Amino acid sequence: MSRLNDYRELVPKGTIDFLNRLAEQVKGRKILHINSTKLGGGVAEMLWSDVLLLQDIGIDAEWQIISGTEEFFNVTKSFHNALQGHDQHLSQKMLEAYLEVNRENAKRLSIDAHYVVIHDPQPAALIESRPAQGKWVWRCHIDISRPQWKVWSFLKQFVVNYDAAVFSLPRFAQRLPIAQFLIYPSIDPLSDKNRDLSPQEQAQILSRLNVPTDKPMLLQVSRFDRFKDPLGVIQTYRLVKKHHDVRLVLAGGEATDDPEGKTVLSEVREAARDDPDIHILLLPPDANLEINALQRAATIVLQKSLREGFGLTVAEAMWKGKPVIGSSTGGITVQLLYGVTGFTVNSVEGAAFRIHHLLDNPEVMTKIGEDGREYVRQNFLITRNLGDWLALMSYLGRAT
Amino acid sequence: MRVKIAKYSFLFTGCWELKEMVGRSARDEQQLLEAIEEIPLDSLSYHTQSFFLRHKYIAGPYPNDFATWAAIQVRDRVLGEKLGILDPYDFENLEALRTEIVNIIDEHLSQLQIIPRVIYGEPFHFMQSRIIEVPTGLEARTLREFRKILATVDASAVYYHNFEAILRLGRRMGDFALWIDEQLDLPELAKKISSLDFYMTSLESIRQRIIKLCDEVLVKEAPE
To answer: Which of A393, B20, B27, B76 could make an S-S bridge to B116, C-beta 3.0–4.6 Å?
Structure first.
């Protein structure tokens, strides 16, 4: 029995047989994914499942990571911030360090495949070493709708040499002379982060995390990153707390490619002061079961990001039947259809108002939770992502 | 009633929609109009018809993206209503649909002093469909076989044989009705299927309605 078959009962009817048929169009081809980390963050998480499923369906799929110095990751973090619109200064020396690490990785990695998919800016310059054969795709997971132009111009000189680019939202599209496709990210319903948990399993994990379940729980799961606005979440909680006795859990992992995490975390601890109902959990990158248990225990899940690539934690919570309140930014707006599958808000006050509304109307929470789960089943499960990649490979293959 | 066996089997074909960005957007209704005049037909198709491949829920008040954008993002409910009622099945082809959309927006703008634009909302981002056909390997030679496969086949096959076939491939009756008429010699059933209102519903609902129509014929048929 293949791994893909395990999804049969979770996905819409006919999906698995259909994917097997679609895969026949590209069977025997090799696809190579390259990114900068195997742990931490949504990209790495998605790639673990993607690669296994591609292999399972008969595609020769491989995943390699680039290695880099601390200086390199500081530079790429600045890239990340600049591409999301924040002012960053990048010196010539920093850009040289970026290029040098890419050149070294090009020598070290075997980058020969029918399809090479480069994820995000870190390995983007590998395109300079592309072999004559094969289609190269740049997969950008971050919000580059308002980039700092100097940095984008630097990166763009590499992007234009790809055969296609893939973005997570239409608004991330850029003026480029290459084809640009839209692929929404997805979640794996059978991964430790999303699989069903028994009540005992859930209780044990929460007890280990020292999170009581005696009060309604507000939860935000995200890296400790300014773009996720953890301080805004604490302000929201304080507005809600005036009328409802709730707990707030801020649970965040640290990605190995994010040097800023520690600074933000200390600011959050300072803001929480000694409130016993605020729980700040710094989780290791592989704390998938812990996040799963927290999302299942939550009453309402928040994703109050100021900027967001896609915000897969929203789909994760929706899959668990939880009502989600998220900011009107990035991919959150695609997942939360206002009043149908969740609520989008634009401020601390807006988030607090919606939390009040939901806590006072449990039947609305139930309905939103059910519809949210169904919406994720149709649109944001990994089987849909698999189909998109198979279709893209088929399409690019025909264009040869 | 005798079981009719087709000379040529019905081959179920599904499809996968690859979403390509056109790289063009509109922040006001004039820009929307100008872009609609120029976009490829694959883009027009994406925003008016392949919607059904992507949404089980209607993600806005209307079943096409232009109307929803006008109503929600621009907050021009009048234009939203005028565009929302458009049914692609009323038009000979996508080019005719494009002409009608352009006429509606043009007429609407001619009555206004100020061009409505997004202030807090999102611009309209033009996309286009790249439809990848996927033969399912499933085939039927009788109505009973057809009905059985239809009940379980991926919903994209329902889309392909009814939306794609009619609106983009020019097979005006739709593949299901055409085969039932020509191969099974059941013109009444074919007519009922081709008369269904495909537009204001979902793929699952269309599937169920066609199955029901097949069942009405099958109860009169002798068992195979």
So the answer is: B76
